[in-house]
TrEMBL record:
Stated name of the protein: Iron-sulfur cluster assembly 2 homolog, mitochondrial
Source organism per UniProt: Hermetia illucens (Black soldier fly)
Entry keyword annotation includes Metal-binding: yes
Keywords, comma-separated and alphabetical: Iron, Metal-binding, Mitochondrion
Record-level Gene Ontology MF annotations: 2 iron, 2 sulfur cluster binding; 4 iron, 4 sulfur cluster binding; iron ion binding
Entry keyword Iron: yes
UniProt function note: Involved in the maturation of mitochondrial 4Fe-4S proteins functioning late in the iron-sulfur cluster assembly pathway. May be involved in the binding of an intermediate of Fe/S cluster assembly.
Record GO cellular component, one term: mitochondrial [4Fe-4S] assembly complex
Main location: mitochondrion
InterPro entries: ATAP, ATAP_core_dom, HesB-like_dom_sf
PANTHER family assigned to the protein according to its UniProt record, in alphabetical order: IRON-SULFUR CLUSTER ASSEMBLY 2 HOMOLOG, MITOCHONDRIAL
Organism lineage: Eukaryota, Metazoa, Ecdysozoa, Arthropoda, Hexapoda
Pfam families: Fe-S_biosyn
């Protein structure tokens, strides 16, 4: 399932669609375009993944041999997509790195599209502890355990 999802997303990500923003005069002259937005496009398409202090602290404790935390988004879970965390030590050519050498999180370029702007956190409870994603602006809803989510379709 995840392999099929990645193939479909890669194929659609390689397509480029020309977009032109209309200025306010052009919008006024468009008689058949009542729902045209004139807001400016974001200045940057930067990929951002934040690391909480507890995440950095835990990674510094467990990644002493040059390893890092790999975050992957896969199809599945009770809400459609799920986060997968693994310790890894091999970078791929499509990987993006966040953090420092002592506390690094790596995400492939497909998965970042589903968690761009989110925060990786390390959470400790009485019965378990682990990494989790909080504040994902791309997620509309999630399951109660926080491991899976549905994509926001804005």
């Amino acid at each position: 399932m995840a392999a099929i999802l990645r193939h479909v997303i890669r194929a659609s990500a390689q397509r480029s669609f020309p977009v032109r923003l209309l200025n306010s005069n052009e919008v006024k002259n468009q008689s058949n375009a009542p729902n045209v937005s004139t807001k400016e496009a974001p200045a940057s398409d930067a990929q951002i993944l934040n690391l909480s202090d507890s995440c950095k602290k835990r990674l510094e404790e467990i990644c002493t041999d040059g390893s890092f935390l790999r975050l992957t988004v896969e199809g599945g879970g009770c809400s459609g997509f799920q986060y997968k965390f693994d310790l890894d030590n091999k970078l791929n050519e499509d990987d993006l790195s966040f953090g420092t050498d002592k506390a690094k999180v790596v995400v492939d370029n497909i998965s970042i599209e589903y968690c761009n702007g989110a925060t990786v956190d390390f959470h400790t409870e009485l019965i378990r502890s682990g990494f989790r994603i909080v504040g994902n602006p791309k997620a509309e809803q999630g399951c109660s355990c926080g491991a899976s989510f549905a994509i926001r379709l804005d």
